[in-house]
Amino acid sequence: MMLDPQDWSALWLTVRLATTVTVLLLIVGTPIAWWLAYTRSRLRGVVSALVSMPLVLPPTVLGFYLLLLMGPHGPVGALTQALGLGMLPFTFTGLVVASTFYSLPFVVQPVQNAIEAIGRRPLEVAATLRASPWDRFWSVVVPLARPGFLTGAILGFAHTVGEFGVVLMIGGNIPDRTRVVSVQIFDHVEALEYTQAHWLAGGMVAFAFFVLLALYTLNPQGSFRK
Amino acid sequence: MGDEPIVLRLAHQYAGFDLDVELSLPGKGVSVLFGHSGSGKTTLLRCVAGLERATNAYLRVQGEVWQNTAQGVFLPTWKRAIGYVFQEASLFPHLNVHGNLTFGMRRAGGRINEDEVQAASRQLGINHLLTRKPEGLSGGERQRVAIARALLTRPRLLLMDEPLSALDHARKQEILPYLERLHDELEIPMLYVTHQIEEAARLADQLVLLEHGRVLASGPLDETLARLDLPLARDHEASVVISAEVVGHDERWHLTRLRFGGGDIFVSRRNFTQGKRLRVRILARDVSIALNSDHASSIQNRFACRVMEIGETEDPAQCMVSLQAGGTTLLARITRRSADQLVLTVGQDVWAQVKAVALLE
Q: Which chain A residues are Cβ-neighbours of B100 within 8 angstroms?
């Protein structure tokens, strides 16, 4: 086998990070998508813009400000210290938080599109059939918006696996704790270990291809195309 | 439960429109909310369902207060014991017919009673469709599923928002008999919104006339249709609906004899059992007036009447005459010229000649 223990460690860390972030993204992103789909508030545009910022900003910019926020002199850092949680930068938790922000639009947008496509009517019908708001979410929104949730989850996962800039700014390069695959590849290349780099980089290419292939074939009518 | 009236006082401002109604509707039978688009009838229904939150409202259904703005009471839609049928069937596409039918039943009653599902499916002629998905159904079938789905929640009030308007003529005729049977068998009150006078004539017990967010009139169907002060009687389609009983058949001439307060009506032979009660709609333009009954005429249905009132129509050449025939009101739309030539006056005894009647069955 061409992967050394450090590669395996980076792979395992990446999978753990992406899984945690995907779950968090669905939990955080769904209410935001719901709100954006139904609100008539003037804040809608502002929130949409904020959520979409990571699409256009260089990851280093986002990482830089998150670092300042979560650092010893930032408000978030002060808070986590006051709560006895310590500092977030250069920890796995810090990576999770930063990645969640970074991948948010990839979940919010497909879920929002899917919810908008359902419209209000099925929810009104469910309400006249005695379904409570929580019940309506699980029995109507989730099944009808499933392609959107699926697309969002896959994109969120894949995008987290592929990030580099934010990881480097927030997580640094600590083996077993913040050194994910993309950083590991960078290390290999810097050390001129091209064969090692190939194994990981090639794996990432294949991974990206199969994820997108799955997305397009499993979900041909899904919201990803809308 | 009982037959307590539905009490509704409601003021609602939205998008430049102003709805302001006060109604007390019978706790049984069908009340049709009738009006043109923009009259506020659908909004009124949505407020009753709680889908729209009226700015200021008091609503009581069978003794239960659903909304009382003064006391901050607002029962959300899902806690109101209603059945709601929308214009489009709006079935859940991810569930089959059985899943759609039991969606509300499970939540309203806590369990699924298969016998009831079967009974309702048979009642609406959809028992062969239970395993099908909504996408494979015709428009008429979908709407029947939607009606059964609403009924299966055992509502205390059934609300229907133009359930036939999205269907073509043939599909409408397919569903109307089910609605009529519902009208006969239903123990709970129904509010039915439509802008089609024919549907109102077939289904209504009570007719509520809405215009620009106000109630123009509310009363029993027959009385309200015959009121000359309302726009209904000024219209080209003005009519009355009378209740008649099948009293016999004339085999030689292939006729069926119906009896109402004013006399007997002959219609083409139909296979009705004796004693059956029917609704008969008589258009005002199909009724002419004669001063006596001696002259021969091809018109068989003639009734002795008294002129009660003479009113206007939308056409300056024509007037509307309200006639009383044995306690039943008929309308005759005749030209002003003939009214003048016959010297029609209120209180005069005349003969009404009815050229055509429509059996609403």
A: none
Residue A200's alpha-carbon distances to A4, A5, B280, in angstroms, are: 11, 13, 83
Q: What angle do CA B205, B206, B207 make, to 5 degrees?
A: 125
Q: What is the pLDDT of residues A126-146, one digit of tens each?
A: 999 999 999 999 999 999 999
The ipTM, to two decimals, is 0.88
Interface mutation vs chain B, best among A123, A125, A132, most B CBs within 10 Å: A125
CATH of the domain at B32: 3.40.50.300
C-beta atoms of A129 and B153 within 8 A: yes
Same domain, B86 and B208: yes
Statement: residue B160 has pLDDT above 70: yes
Chain B residues inside the 8 Å CB shell of A138: none
User: In chain B, how many domains are there?
Assistant: 2
Interface test with A, best of B100, B103, B142, B191 (most A CBs within 10 A): B103
Minimum distance, in Å, between the CA of residue A128 and any CA atom of chain B: 6
Q: Which residue has the tokens 């050229």?
A: B355
- CATH of residue B322's domain is 2.40.50.100
Q: Which domain holds residue B284?
A: 239-359
Cα separation, B355 vs A151, whole angstroms? 67
A130 touches chain B (CB under 8 A): yes
Note the pLDDT of residue A194: 92
Residue of chain A whose Cα is closest to the Cα of B104: A129
| DSSP result, B195-210 | S-HHHHHHH-SEEEEE
Q: Dump pLDDT digits (tens) for B230-288.
A: 999 988 889 999 999 999 999 999 999 999 999 999 999 988 899 999 999 999 999 99
Q: What angle do CA A192, A196, A197 make, to 5 degrees?
A: 70
Shortest Cα–Cα distance, B309 to chain A (Å) = 46
Q: What is the pTM of this model?
A: 0.86
- B273 DSSP assignment: P
Whether residue B195 sits in one domain with residue B111: yes
Of A125, A135, A139, the CB nearest to B86: A125
Rg (alpha carbons) of chain B, rounded to whole number: 23
For residue A56, give every residue at least 6 positions away whose Cβ sits within 8 Å of its Cβ, in sequence order, or none.
none
Last residue of some domain: B169, B197, B224?
B224
State residue A223's pLDDT score: 44
- A58's CB contacts (< 8 A; 6+ apart) are A165
pLDDT band at residue A172 using 50, 70 and 90 as cut-offs:
confident
- Domains of chain A, each with CATH number or no CATH: 5-37+58-219 (1.10.3720.10)
